[in-house]
Amino acid sequence: TVKTHIDGSSPQESDFELKTAALHLSVEPGSKDVIVKNLYVSIDPYQINRMKRVCSSQKLVSTADGITPGQAISANGIGRVMASGNPEFEKDDLVVGLINWEEYTIVKGGNTFRKLDPMGFPLSYHLGVLGLSGLTAYGGFFEVCKPKKGEKVFVSAACGSVGNLVGQYAKLFGCHVVGCAGTKQKVELLKGKLGFDDAFNYKEEADLKSTLKRYFPDGIDIYFDNVGGKMLEASVANMNPFGRIAVCGIISEYTGIGERVAPDMIDIVYKRLKVQGFLVIDYLKGMDDFISTMSNHLSTDKIHVLEDISQGVESIPSAFVGLFRGDNVGKKVVKVADE
Ligand code: NDP
């Protein structure tokens, strides 16, 4: 649980508390509850927005409800059914969907998840490359950015869960891709294993507008934005006419400690840029097609899987806090229990 709301600062491990409670592995007769033993939970930046006070009163920050301090924190995850009053689920079923950052979750009515067929892939893939991170990258890149072969694509937080996949899809599609990330090791990974055409460490760059000019002498056609702030400002300045910007997330602004910078709006007018925000839920109806395409890519080694797994429920606070320090390389998940 989170002890209090976290407003306008980077989260700290001390903001969190691990609580224990007795659990009976049986459901009340007549109820449709399902008791799930949690195996993997997803660690996502957007949770910080749910922890802000404003989110508990007016759903301004996210489509997800605010998190009440002291209560379990819901999150996407994978688990095994231990007991079920819901005829849709049986003991030992694997499920994926909304559970909590905890070891066991009692899901009231058992309707926040679906049965999971792992299709021979590691379970954690179903939170990342075959799960919502992958769908975010896929929907955002293909539906929002509407790429054309040969176009110049820039991705921020490129070594993160969504970013690394956007870059890989863009390469597969035939685009020229440059990513930025916050360490030398990540930059090497992007240029090496992940096949980006180029990459740079944004923390070593003093003037992002001229950095982007250097990497994109002919301008950017597509910017997939995971960070907002100064990087968005610099990208708009370097976009080509009729360029597209997919605003997936603005992590540099979630903690409220960065300067708030706005892009030059007149650039958007004169260059006729399209700037579109989106949510992964917009693409859920395409999930089955997405999984089938992506499992083919995985089976033929077209996509390199980048995931970063911590062990044990007690590692959740540091895993989460680490997202805002750039500790993670790829999809961050916590393995809560053995399968
Ligand atoms: P990541 O795996 O990318 O983890 C976050 C990364 O962001 C860190 O590793 C770090 O990498 C980078 N970062 C952290 N703080 C800053 C900062 N101040 N400035 C620049 N970069 C920073 O997370 P996800 O892939 O899960 O999410 C990426 C973005 O996509 C987030 O903004 C998230 O909210 C959004 N998102 C949106 C969805 C939607 O439906 N629209 C769905 C899922 C995610 P580095 O080393 O590069 O600094």
UniProtKB/TrEMBL annotation:
Keywords: Oxidoreductase. InterPro entries: ADH-like_C, ADH_N_2, ER, GroES-like_sf, MDR_fam, NAD(P)-bd_dom_sf. Residues 13-334 form the Enoyl reductase (ER) domain. This is Enoyl reductase (ER) domain-containing protein. PANTHER family: OS06G0602900 PROTEIN (PTHR43205:SF12), PROSTAGLANDIN REDUCTASE (PTHR43205). The keyword Oxidoreductase applies. It holds the Pfam family ADH_zinc_N. It comes from Vitis vinifera.
